[in-house]
């Protein structure tokens, strides 16, 4: 694991999530389909500004890791309540909804959430949620609920009992090193009985031992898949991306 001083490299986020990862000042990193230049110490206000300025790119393609491992995520269950942190307008949300599942997401900017519903022609309503100091964008059938708020305002008192978590937003590697455990402490209580959490991370940010340290009692962690980096990622010292499967036991 490299030191914090060595983090002067670029970081981006996958376009499907629409949420870029934190980057060092004047640095830039490519992560899958989107590349965004940002300053260090990204705040929720800065994320929102990026959305308003259309500085995130979006693809209609499902993530390869998702299509390859979604059977493990759902595990032959019906109507699975699924959490998607920093969701943006991820296409996986609609895929899960189309299959009859329930999806809850959190995103700091409302532009992406409006676009998600409008582009997919899904009827929705918006209401203020004082508990998260934000808003809730909800599909007419109630099976898609996307909260527009600071991620750290969200907790298990708002929504809980998730049967699945799809985390390909780069959220865990986006936050400062001293906030990573804080992020995990929000995710863990959300995971209900027999929950399956698929988290995709790059090797430079979080390794297997660190994931296992965070998810100890009541959890089991597997390093499930690995995808080699393309040429652009290799130029930044990233060899590839690791899929971790985290089981609530």
What can you see in these coordinates?
This protein is α/β, with parallel strands linked by helices and 249 residues long. It is 26% helix and 27% strand. The chain has a 9-stranded mixed beta sheet, sandwiched between helices. The chain has a two-stranded antiparallel ribbon with strand order 1-2. Strand 3 (81-84), helix 3 and strand 4 form a beta-alpha-beta unit. Mean pLDDT is 80; it is low at 1-42.
Q: What is the H/E string?
A: EEHHEHEHEEEEHHEHEHE
Runs with pLDDT <50, length 5+?
1-42
Total E-strand runs: 11
Q: Which band does the percent of strand residues land in?
A: 25-35%
The end-to-end distance, rounded to whole angstroms, is: 28 Å
Question: Structural class of the helices, strands and pairings?
Answer: alpha/beta
Main β sheet profile: 9 strands, mixed
Strand order of the largest sheet: 5-6-7-4-3-8-9-11-10
Percent helix: 25-40%
Quick overview of this protein structure:
This protein is of the alpha/beta class and about 250 residues long.
Characteristic key phrases:
249 residues; 11 strands; single chain; 8 helices; two-stranded antiparallel ribbon; nine-stranded mixed sheet; alpha/beta; disordered N terminus
